[in-house]
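Lecture 7 notes. Example A: sequence first, then its structure tokens.
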Amino acid sequence: MFENSRRQTRKFKSMSSGAALTFISTLMWFLMSASSASALNMISLDCGAGSVGSGDQFVVDVTMNFAESTGGGGMEIYLNENLSFVSFTFDTIFSGNFGLLNPTNGSGNGSAGSPLEIAFGFFSAMPPWGYSGEQTIGQIVLQAGAPGSVGSITAGASSFNPGPFYGFDDVNTPMNVQFGATSVTITPEPSTALLLGIGLLGISARSKGRSRSQDRA
């Protein structure tokens, strides 16, 4: 009788241990899934200076900071009417295993109906697959338009070729990516501002001269 009781106790402990391991495994899977779902993947734009002269060219850095590993994808860059596209150059790290697709100034000029497309993919056959972490993707060169206006640059998910970013955990569902934006204030060219300043000084000097002549009279 006591022997049967001991066997039942050992059996109960074994079942309890198995159930506990199952519970822990399930909890860990749930936490990992939740962490993956809430992982922050970002595409950022940075033009450095807050202002640029009319007609001047300036550089916008395109950077990624992915918590999840991506196998590739693309983004769209939109420019408002106060900016025009000049060129785009990938960072040197995006070579070798990466397939590149540069945006073109023509059919893709950054306008609302024709965004610039920037895309890359990782084709390594050996782990670690894909790419994650923080890295400069490349630099866009833009030209500022009319003075007194604001130029805006906005990134968004690719709706053309190659489409959105995909990871390796779920190749059928696009990754959750947060896209950034930036802007610059367009000021008059230095030469124009200088001429304007000289003109104002001349007007001021002439006005003072007239005033003195009237006082003497």
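Example B, a different protein, same format:
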Amino acid sequence: MTTVLASGLLALAGLLAAPPVAPKFPSSDVVPPVTKAADGSTLLELHQLVCVFQEGEPDALPYTAKTPAECERVNRASADKRKKSFKRLRIRAGKYILRVVNTNVPWPTAFDLRGERDVALPTAVASEIQPGTGKEIKVTLEPGQYVYTDPVSKTATYELLVER
């Protein structure tokens, strides 16, 4: 009995002394590159390609569409199949400048960021982002799950996780 008790205590001591295991994040999570802006905010740049956001879908095919309606057809037909390769962006809560860049879309695009299930989370919206230009949106992001999309091109809905 003493031997069993002693070996049990040693096993328990080994468990207590074990180093903590780092949390595992889904392989679809990506921490995007950010920089500090002059005003102390964090700058996060998102790039709109034809029918997709590059950061949310880095392995997307290079779609060619001449109108937003063509993008809507592409995304209606293929977004559900592509979702397993989407990347959820993970960032820390705080003050941000979201720079949304219309990289090569031949029409003015838009941007819509909102809480996925929590309507109380901050929103960020931009419209008329001309080809080859970008718009900056200042927003203080609170912890929570967000989604973003381009409502003009009817892109798929991408995820942004904001952590403490």
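Note on Example B: The domain at 30-163 is CATH 2.60.40.420 (Immunoglobulin-like). The CA atoms of residues 55 and 150 lie 13 Å apart.
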